[in-house]
Design goal:
Number of strands: 16
Helix content: 10-25%
Number of domains: 2
Distance between the termini: 35 Å
Strand order of the largest sheet: 4-3-7-1-2-6-5
Strand content: 35-45%
Bound molecules: flavin-adenine dinucleotide, FE2/S2 (inorganic) cluster
Shape: globular
Radius of gyration: 18 Å
CATH class of the largest domain: Alpha Beta
Length: about 260
């Protein structure tokens, strides 16, 4: 892991409350794997004090991208940054998605809810590079929650969109769309990131379909480095229930290890 105190912002793009920032960060870019994240200092002042975790959305040469939705004070400050500004970033943090050799020639479902699409773009690129066929499912409340739709389609991946109000693609939840697709075909594996309720529902769907899956979990993070245990969550590991740190042991966990609220 590296600290880059002066990662230069090369360019920014925005769609309503969603933002994409491209950073020049050669060491971090070199080491990044899909599903890993950056801990970003959003302000030079003491407020907000804590770095904010954001997934590595893409890596291209010496650059990394982050894609985020404004949620509160920290992401609002980040959204105000411009090309030419610098960010203090730590990364790559955590354990990413597993990229298995047996994925070659197989169809892999990648399911993102809203800003949860963030880590899946990098993942889909790496899956494709490894000879797998990523199939993307991208869900949001309405069309404006799908700002990356065009980018996904331009990448040439089979992309299925859903919106709660039917303004784009399938009308209804992305989980329903995946379930529908599973009646027609069986992928080899599924990866997902999004709201907890979406992933919990998807976990049940995968269990019924006997489909192995991995989910990227979120938590408010203190350090992001495994030191404070502020992100600890109960996980089933080798038959035992333990507290593990989302920042260090995750954020990606196999479906069968995750204990969902209400389980
Ligand atoms: C490993 C990881 C990767 C992430 N990747 C992305 C990403 O790529 N793009 C993106 O848009 N967001 C991502 N998030 C969520 C993002 O970190 C939070 O939205 C952000 O930290 C909120 O900071 P804030 O100061 O803007 O909001 P705050 O004022 O801190 O909080 C605003 C609201 O968001 C909730 N919140 C704050 N932090 C989190 C969190 N970590 N998880 C869930 N809810 C939270 C708070 O409870 C509050 O309701 C990720 C989170 C984790 C843990
Ligand atoms: S955020 Fe400190 S241990 Fe995970």
């Amino acid at each position: 892991m590296f600290q880059d105190k002066k990662a230069g912002i090369i360019k920014t793009a925005s769609w309503g409350s969603y933002f994409l920032i491209t950073l020049f960060a050669p060491e971090i870019a070199r080491e990044s794997r899909p599903g890993q994240f950056l801990m970003i200092r959003v302000s030079d002042s003491l407020n907000p004090l804590l770095r904010r975790p954001l997934s590595i959305h893409n890596r291209s040469g010496q650059e990394v991208e982050i894609f985020f939705q404004v949620a509160g004070e920290g992401t609002k400050l980040l959204a105000q940054k411009n090309a030419g500004d610098f960010l203090d970033i730590l990364g790559p943090c955590g354990q990413g998605f597993s990229l298995k050799p047996e994925f070659k020639d197989q169809e892999i479902f990648c399911v993102g809810g809203g800003r949860g699409l963030a880590p899946l773009y990098f993942l889909a690129r790496e899956l494709q590079a490894a000879g797998a066929r990523p199939v993307i499912f991208y869900g949001g409340q309405t069309l404006s929650d799908l700002p990356l739709k065009k980018r996904l389609e331009e990448a040439g991946w089979e992309t299925h969109c859903s919106t709660d109000d039917g303004s784009s693609g399938f009308r209804g939840l992305v989980t329903r769309l995946v379930e529908k697709e599973l009646t027609r075909r069986k992928p080899y594996y599924l990866f997902a990131c999004g709201p907890e309720a979406m992933m919990a529902s998807l976990a049940k769907i995968c269990q019924t379909a006997v489909l192995p899956a991995e989910f990227s979990l979120e938590s408010i993070m203190g350090c992001g480095l495994g030191a404070c245990w502020g992100c600890a969550r109960k996980i089933k590991k080798n038959g035992e229930i333990k507290y593990l740190r989302i920042c260090q042991d995750g954020p990606v966990f196999p479906a069968e290890e995750i204990i969902w609220p209400g389980d």
